[in-house]
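Input (structure):
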């Protein structure tokens, strides 16, 4: 694999940006290799400036559920761009997208469009605190909710301790209001609520966790979170920025969170996210209420257009999700056959990931115990074989509607080669 032009481009980019990138994991620093610089993408494939062609399982970290440059989305965007790129004034597009979102997520009675998942979760926390008049929040170790200060906290493992900042620049005062607990550990949640439940504004959770690799909720974890929060008058926030639209946990588990955060797919590849929930809570957001939140580019017409087209295709295509999930299962079963019991390949709909461990992964500590050296070698070998995976075992992989049976076969052939070298 020749990456000559990417290496030159990377060296140039490093002069201007930390790590040469605008989001850390893109630098490929934890797999010790140069990130291919991308020239274009189409369907399930992504192409770099050296002319390499990869089957893409990153999908821009989740949004590209239709595959890249879907004709209908591109056509709609071309028309939209001619009408102007931003007005900072209301459009009918915003209402149309909200209607589509509500069709899929009826719990979002009232919602607000924002520009990134970070903004959605940050704003949802403010609403939870403003509505309850309480300061503390509960999150789970290994769940990522964007990079706002309150959420960039991880108390470390084990017992219920008050948060330590996980980044310089997050103040102790902010961190001490964030309580970080192990995922899937309802006993730890109940203990914290017994101690200080009347001070807790909300519990925020990825109902399917995708930011420590893929970790599924177990033993009625989500149902139990709903019960505990209700009992203590705290809000339950589902951060479905990643798992949303691919998996409808609210319908599947029959749980109504107080607030939901969406992102990634909702913008069809353009910057867009959304938070919303019960009307009695959301009506407290400005200008209906006093909780302030705003955005110059929020509800941007191009982002709304890409989102509308994407969601409309999801809703209008018969068996869209079923077919996508079946294709993903084929890939996941294939990987399980190749690796056997030495590797875990969890799947949730069209999301999957790979842990090099023979133990089931239920939380961050389990994920961190997997063999990262094996992951690194696997990643590099797959890249050489033309398979573009996320460069960290703490990330999730995505299958799109554009992936073909031939793509899956080729991926499994590459996995066989990688497996032989590894294990
Ligand atoms: C990606 C992600 C975010 C942050 O979204 P950005 O658009 O990157 O700010 C928040 N929560 C979850 C669950 C995510 O996967």
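Output (sequence):
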């Amino acid at each position: 694999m020749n990456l000559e032009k990417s290496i030159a481009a990377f060296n140039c980019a490093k002069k201007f940006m930390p790590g040469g990138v605008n989001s850390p994991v893109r630098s490929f620093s934890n797999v010790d290799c140069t990130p291919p610089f991308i020239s274009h993408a189409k369907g399930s494939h992504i192409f770099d400036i050296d002319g390499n062609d990869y089957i893409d399982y990153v999908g821009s970290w989740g949004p590209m559920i239709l595959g890249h440059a879907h004709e209908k989305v591109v056509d709609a965007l071309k028309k939209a761009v001619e009408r102007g790129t931003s007005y900072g004034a209301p459009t009918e597009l915003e209402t149309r997208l909200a209607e589509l979102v509500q069709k899929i997520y009826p719990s979002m009675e009232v919602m607000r469009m924002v520009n990134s998942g970070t903004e959605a979760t940050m704003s949802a926390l403010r609403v939870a605190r403003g509505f309850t008049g309480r300061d503390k929040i509960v999150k789970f170790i290994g769940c990522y909710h964007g990079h706002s200060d309150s959420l960039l906290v991880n108390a470390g493992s084990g017992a219920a301790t008050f948060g330590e900042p996980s980044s310089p620049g997050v103040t102790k005062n902010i961190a001490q209001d964030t309580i970080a607990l192990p995922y899937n550990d309802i006993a730890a949640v109940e203990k914290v609520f017994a101690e200080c439940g009347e001070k807790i504004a909300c519990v925020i959770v990825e109902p399917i966790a995708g930011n420590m690799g893929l970790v599924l909720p177990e033993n009625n974890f989500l149902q139990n979170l709903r019960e505990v929060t209700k009992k203590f008058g705290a809000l339950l926030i589902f951060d479905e920025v990643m798992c949303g639209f691919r998996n409808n946990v609210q319908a599947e588990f029959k749980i109504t969170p107080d607030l939901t955060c969406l992102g990634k797919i909702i913008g069809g590849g353009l910057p867009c996210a959304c938070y919303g929930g019960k009307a009695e809570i959301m009506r407290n957001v400005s200008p209906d209420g006093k909780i302030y939140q705003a955005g110059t580019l929020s509800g941007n017409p191009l982002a709304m257009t890409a989102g509308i087209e994407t969601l409309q295709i999801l809703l209008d295509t018969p068996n869209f999700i079923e077919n996508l999930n079946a294709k993903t299962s084929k890939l996941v079963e294939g990987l399980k056959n190749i690796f056997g019991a030495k590797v875990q390949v969890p799947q949730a709909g069209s999301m999957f990931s790979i842990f090099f461990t023979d133990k089931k992964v239920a939380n961050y500590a389990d994920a961190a115990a997997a063999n990262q050296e094996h992951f690194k070698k696997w990643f590099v070998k797959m890249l050489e074989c033309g398979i573009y995976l996320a460069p960290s075992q703490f990330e999730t992989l995505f299958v799109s509607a554009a992936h073909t049976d031939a793509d899956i076969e080729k991926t499994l052939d590459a996995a066989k080669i990688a497996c032989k070298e590894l294990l």
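Notes: The two ends are 23 Å apart (CA to CA). The longest strand covers residues 136-141.
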